[in-house]
């Protein structure tokens, strides 16, 4: 009797220990990647100073998909890419096809880009920034159309790869992101950075690594030449995939709008930063990560963010003949909108997305080039350990300044609205509007903290 009681106790203890693992095994996950390297010479994205299209390929670039299916059978899809960003004219048709083909709703699809400045121009993103030659327009259009099909395809491949999986989360740190406004604007400015490296691991039933998504909040701007490549994030993903054969490494750009990898401008440095980031990810993978369970609750919303009053038609007309070519291209674009619509947009529908996992991870996924203040603010508000704040997702159409950066001014505070083809800087209050919508979605997906 006593012996039998002991056995039951032992079984009970075993079951208690094993239950998180059993919950784990109810995940299915699939990952896939597709080569999106341009097949022809194409204008490269991110810098206005380039004067000619690409000349060769240093490293293949990819779009990658990670599909997580929770115990309710619901699928959530992360797409990452070695691109400057997905503008809405590219992400909208992708999302529509993903809904139609795979039944995955908008709230469960995140489209992130590494913000590499050594990838192709897509859509009309940052159009006023580039001295494009007329023959480049159809090249960009061809590339963009092919890309849309390829992203839809890679999600299908990831779904086809769905297998039982264990999902876990942890955070590391890497130190090469520097607040660039202290260099580009004023040395006496505060220099906040977010050097956290969030890591989501996906392992097979046998414990082998099948996919790893990892983030960093820093521009992919080590390189600025004419060879296509993924910059430091490309080298980090390459290093991780070499170290873990069969696994797919997905880089997520976080709130690094005011961060640069410094010093920079050599292939050697790009590779080094990639190795540092990969080492940070590997350290997390070797350590104790927190198991995640489902269901994944998801929400997506557009919130209107107002612009300041734009310059007058007369002001734009006077800018047409100025010395700065991108200011003149911007003015021409604004006048074309005025001719067509009679007015300029006074607000922008800003995309905010939230995913929340059982097991603790909350993932805030934001559009645009988001400055680091947002990441630090949300971590302070919702907790540092189990929060991942991604930027550069779903629609990259402008810099997203905090109230501090908006007041300080400079490129991230409003100057970048010219190359981005927006009418004016954001109006005061932008940070509160976005934080309010994040809070709303955090509540909707799991209650307030
Ligand atoms: Zn940028």
Percent strand = 15-25%
Supply the number of helical segments: 12
Bound molecules: zinc ion
- Low-pLDDT sequence parts: 1-24
Mean of all residue-level pLDDT scores: 94
Description:
This protein has 449 residues and is of the alpha+beta class. It has two domains: 378 residues, no CATH class; 31 residues, no CATH class. Helix content is 36%, strand content 24%. It contains twelve helices and 16 strands. Strands 1, 2, 3, 4, 5, 7, 8, 9, 11, 12, 13 and 15 form a twelve-stranded mixed sheet that branches. It has a two-stranded antiparallel sheet with strand order 6-10. A hairpin with a 4-residue loop joins β7 and β8. α2 runs parallel beside α3, α5 packs across α6 and α7 packs antiparallel against α8. The longest helix has 25 residues. It starts with a helix and ends in a 5-residue tail after the last helix. The N terminus is likely disordered. Bound molecules: zinc ion (ZN). Zinc ion binds next to loops.
Summarize the structure.
With 449 residues, this protein is α+β, with helices and mostly antiparallel strands.
Compile the SSE list and pairings.
Layout: H1 2-24, E1 27-35, E2 62-69, E3 75-81, H2 88-102, E4 109-111, H3 136-160, E5 163-173, E6 177-179, H4 181-184, E7 196-204, E8 209-216, H5 231-243, E9 248-253, E10 259-261, H6 267-286, E11 290-306, H7 313-319, H8 325-341, E12 347-358, E13 362-366, E14 369-370, H9 372-382, E15 387-390, E16 399-400, H10 403-408, H11 410-413, H12 430-444
Parallel strand pairs: 3-4, 8-9, 13-15, 14-16
Antiparallel strand pairs: 1-2, 1-5, 2-3, 5-7, 5-11, 6-10, 7-8, 11-12, 12-13
The structure holds zinc ion.
